[in-house]
Amino acid sequence: MLTILQKEFNAFLNSPVAYVVLGVFLVATGLFVWVFPDSSVLDYGYADLQTLFNLAPWIFLFLIPALTMRTFAEEKKAGTIELLLTRPLTDGQIIGGKYLACLLLALLALVPTLLYYYSVYKLGSPEGNIDSAATVGSYLGLALLAAVFAAIGVLASALTRDQIIAFLVAVVGCFLVYSGFDSLASVLQGSAAYYVSQLGIAAHYRDLSKGLVDSRDLVYFFSVVAVALQATRLALRSRNW
């Protein structure tokens, strides 16, 4: 699995896709956090990074599927999937290697944004006037969100040989899991609305953004990742049906 992870990660770094994805993410978040007056931290008057953590999930909604769309779809289109599957590797090792490579690249995009935290920490009055617990929780939430989106993207890529279709399916799947349940809950009332909202990512992400690291939220994220990767495994096994 580590060999596949290294191969896939190096393949990303040797293609322009990774740099385009990282560049778009950093430029977009940088403009909204520091430049645009309606969302700029400098004009907002509060020492926090809520703009970043509100915007990043929507950017990830498109950028992570752009990373994952080639994982299996490209192998199928090039005819190398059979060669890969005949190697002395289990389906789990193949999926795990490709999934972790995509996730690692997505997490790499978050590393430069730590400069945003340092800048706000220094600019605060007094210095350090920022809710560090909420910031750590928000970064954890983004990392888990990226893990879910990457799992859904790998699943979408395993279902088709066309990268564009894989991208579109992944975007729709990520949107439904992230925002779809909240939209459905908004038309319901009482306890039904609460339980439906808990099925989506947004509610759990909001809890983590407050600095509340609850085991239930962690179990939710890991469960969604496990289900998506297991579905990917079933999609690969279907070649034998």
TrEMBL record:
Superkingdom as given in the UniProt entry: Bacteria
One Pfam family per UniProt: ABC2_membrane_5
Membrane-spanning segments: 12-35, 55-73, 94-118, 138-157, 164-181, 218-236
InterPro entries: ABC-2_transporter_component, ABC2_memb-like, Motility-assoc_ABC_perm_GldF
Localization, UniProt: Cell membrane
Chain coiled-coil ranges: none
Keywords noted in UniProt: Cell membrane, Membrane, Transmembrane, Transmembrane helix
Lipid metabolism listed as a keyword: no
Entry membrane topology: Multi-pass membrane protein
Predominant location: membrane
Protein name: Gliding motility-associated ABC transporter permease subunit GldF
Organism of provenance: Hymenobacter negativus
